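Reopening: structure tokens for the glutamic acid complex, inputs below.
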Amino acid sequence: MNLLSDRILNMATSATLAMAAKARELRGEGKDIIGLSLGEPDFNTPDFIKDAAIQAINDNYNSYSPVDGYGELKEAIITKFKRDNNLAYTPSQIVVSTGAKQSLANIAGVMINKGDEVILPCPYWVSYSDIVKLNDGIPVEVKTSIATDFKMTPEQLEAAITPNTKMIWFSSPCNPSGSVYSKEELRALADVLQKHPNIYVVSDEIYEHINYIGGHASMAQFDDMYDRTITVNGVSKAFAMTGWRIGYIGASEKIARACNKMQGQITSGANCIAQRAVITALNESPSRVKYMIDEFKVRRDLILGLLNDIEGFKTNIPEGAFYVFPNISHYFGKTLRGKTINNASDFSLYILEEANVATVTGEAFGNPDCIRISYAASQEQIIEAIKRIKEALS
Ligand code: PMP
Ligand code: GLU
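Re-run output (same inputs, fresh job):
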């Protein structure tokens, strides 16, 4: 009998976290690694949020919170959904979790039965596929390319639907492509779903505020999609709070209740100090954190300009999040410094070893022709990293 379950043995290690760990390890050996692998703002959590957490400690918030989150936090989330997305939810439709990642794991756990298919437009965020598989679901990848700005078309969606399709999971702004679906594009996808009333949508909007074109659109805004969309969001990205671990969903009551039940057996709810701090974060206008978004935009333009100068890098223009996802298949089959590059993983490893720059292979996101570069790093780091990559490839 195996010590470990088939479940964990069949699970891939999170490539983003693995690359971050590898970069840390190499740094520990004295190597000057520039980390462009992890999607994590390099800003500190704003002081007004930190102050709220300190206040919560002093106010003795030290007991279990309600499993699905403090009432005041749910109210702040409801206010946020109304203010930023024009979505109306009631408290029984909100569940606060230990990060959006746990929100996603809850959804999978409460909705997927063995053999249910989950459509994942590629590239998708690294953990979607394994969370689905962990719950005995079948990820159905829909390949997209730069030609459609890495967005799934209505025709592709239609073609991917089978009698076993349970859900579609996607992020907009997208990690890793930075693509942002417009309201019209979402409506066109919703039109396809009109014919398939039993298919649900997980709309991961965690990069909502990191949007360079303005105008974030939510799938749940359409009346015919509201009940069958689970809107996932969190504070990790826009508020530079990755380590605080707070995410949340707005969903139909039935789904929210099920997620609450799941958490009740697994975590007992999210960290109470972090929850108190997030009440303050969400009650503020998003303009309070715009200085970070403005800086990300400067960096996006910077990195696109620099990459443009390297032979064999093809990119879309990311309209949100803080990643570029260049197609580097130009290098496949080539031998550089005695190392043959056959795929994106080889390429990412080559860059790590020869340029000391950590990126993530596109294979982890369902696209083996690309790598993901996070530009949540200083302008100096970005300039130095791309210079090194260029040298290593020349
Ligand atoms: N969804 C997407 C698209 C992400 O990039 C991330 C990044 N961590 C998450 C969900 C999970 O975020 P967290 O668990 O930190 O809230
Ligand atoms: N979402 C980030 C990323 O894609 C953080 C890492 C993770 O949660 O896997 O890099």
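The chain has a mean pLDDT of 96. The chain has two domains: 6-44+289-393, 47-286. Marking as resolved unless the reporter disagrees.
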